[in-house]
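Quarterly update, task 2.4: zinc ion-bound model.
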Amino acid sequence: MNYFYVKKIKNMQIGKYSFGIGDRFAHQGEAQLNALMKASETLGLEIVPVWNKSNREHIIVHSTPADTRSEADAAVKALRYKGQYFVDADHINLSNVDKFIDASDFFTLDVADYIGKKAAQADIDAFVADHLKYAGKLQIPGIAEPFDVPKDLLIRITEKFLYAVQEAGKIYRHIEKVKGAGCFVAEVSMDEVNEAQSPVEMFFILSAIAAEKIPAQTIAPKFTGRFNKGVDYAGNIAQFTREFEQDLLVIDFAVKEFGLPANLKLSIHSGSDKFSIYPVMGELIRKYDKGIHMKTAGTTWLEEMIGLAMSNDEEAIDLVKAIYSSAIGRFDELCGPYATVIDINKNRLPSAKEVERWTGEKLANTLRHIPGHPNYNPHFRQLIHVGYKVAAEYGAVYTATLEMHKEIVGQQVIENIYDRHIKRLFGIDH
Ligand SMILES: [Zn+2]
């Protein structure tokens, strides 16, 4: 049994800017925090760290939410960090939330699986009746053209989303009973689906969230386009821009209209590395003076691999190559669970034999996401990303190698978060 002293704060409100920082093997907490503290020191940007880890990751790595809490607390203590920070029970539902409750103070209520399941007919009828005043022309302040919302669209949206939000309410109340109202941050996530939610859908979803009395501070819709793990955005940037801007304005209006928390902000389950849309999002949140939660995926582990590749230590370099070799042999097993968030062209993957001959530098350059670098290979990068299961099987061999090369690995982690993510999002020239 683990006991924690998780500070009880009433009316816990997450700061305007926050970064979700996943860390598969719980070894880079200090480096991650360092990157965010560097943003505060050099750019004057306060970005709240949120250590997120999903149930799936815990199962694959054989870790527990308590480990994430210990990592976060240790990093905060070691760096004498005085700001706010959170531990996120990422993508949880009623079936697995219990083991997260003690250690977490941020909960991502994932109801994507319930989208499309119909609520009780009486609930649907009542919701539609309550919202008829928004049918016809829905004018959102700040958006020039009103949205067309015929009654049958209102009914379709209600049938599609009401049940999912009711489920979010159940999970929320379950957590609230244990932790107490206001003692944690709640996010509602619907991002792990194929179909994007429109700004109009978002409006009614937010109303349903308010009706369930979920004081959501962050909301994670699915946006248009592909958000593959660890690589750039693939989709229509103009359409994304329009959707993102309209979502910001819809949230603004919904907060006032339905009485949601004033700091409610978008949570972008970015999958990390969405370099081509970071400037778009950055500009729009500055234009409307909005906050953002940028959830990065567990790509910190890729920086570990890059650091090991650069270590000049043959054994560490061989370990990276061995992990790749095993990953390519177990392609279907590793990629299966991530099918909706990766796009790997097998023909673009170098063979294990070829990689064996590479220098550490070539290995690092192939993996590191520098757009336009002649060695960068997004297929290789995505396969390694889902290959963390292989590294987990190496267990102490892997983590001892990380510890041996702590410094160079840490440098990669900091450079990645600070230079490639924060600077791009906040429009700092690099
Ligand atoms: Zn997500």
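Highlight for this quarter: DSSP finds 17 helices and ten strands in the chain.
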